[in-house]
Amino acid sequence: MTDVSIIESSSYNSTISFLKKDSVASFIAGGFAGAISRTVVSPFERAKILFQLQGQGKANYNGMFPTIHKMYKDEGFKGLFRGNGLNCIRIFPYSAVQFYVYQKIKLSWLDYGEKELNNFQRLVAGGTCGVASVAVTYPLDLVRTRLSIQTANLAKLEKSKIKINEKPPGFVKLMLDIYKNEGGFLALYRGIWPTTLGVAPYVAINFAVYEQLKELIPNSTPMTKLLLGAISGGIAQTIMYPLDILRRRFQVINMSNNELGFQYKSVSDALVQIYKKEGVKGMYKGLTANLFKVIPSMAVSWLSYEVIKDSLLAL
């Protein structure tokens, strides 16, 4: 064997050893699982955002499938996936960090002699990884929200709506515009507080429910894992949905001189205003659309994660 062959063999073995590390496999599997699952449900994701940002008054978007049909009719096939490219760029590190941090915390506790995490520990680990993932990727989430609605037929956004025959600005230009015109670096993190309030407990519940269900059903089949992921995602999203409404509303404050009309002083002020103007239904606007998205998304995400991670560990 030549020196070159020895070096190549050593490099290959080192790479395989690196990929087989539990936390590394979790990072890679988590990233790909997030990107795959979000692409599958992209039309539902965009429909949900449009529902959330309609506010009170005339609704141009009503019902999940009529909305998807309207997006297709108004904007073509691309309209169904508008913002998804950026969403995948965002979701890969978001999901990767989430699974990586959760696994690191889990392994740290197991190193202290725990056989399995209890539900409280799962909630703490899930909440922590949720906060970490938001902190790393939030500006991408904000820009993705703006991209999702700039060509939409929202009544209050007529002045700044991008026409169908115009090319929408890319995410880099949009991010720079937000930075220059809406308050600098802090503008890229507008809405991070309600986002964190919503995401941390959502991820905590999602991980805790999934791990608990998996513990109750050992040696589960791929179809069972799909079902467990769907259940955990649906429960977590339904409980935390009002804070997802706040997340989107805060992200579009100051967009195009606030044509959408959302003015909130704080999270509590936003909740009071939404309740007064839109009632309890306002807190759950777009929930059905979101469940159409979340249930298959989390099912695909958990299954993809398990399959990809097992494949990496088996190298």
From TrEMBL:
Entry-linked PROSITE patterns: SOLCAR
SUPFAM superfamilies xref list: Mitochondrial carrier
GO biological process, one term: transmembrane transport
Segment forming the signal sequence: none
Domain of life: Eukaryota
Compartments in which it is found: Mitochondrion inner membrane
The Solcar repeat ranges on this chain: 21-108, 117-216, 220-311
Topology of this chain in the membrane: Multi-pass membrane protein
Pfam families according to UniProt: Mito_carr
Keywords noted in UniProt: Membrane, Mitochondrion, Mitochondrion inner membrane, Repeat, Transmembrane, Transmembrane helix, Transport
CC per GO annotation: mitochondrial inner membrane
Stated family: Belongs to the mitochondrial carrier (TC 2.A.29) family.
Entry protein name: Mitochondrial carrier protein
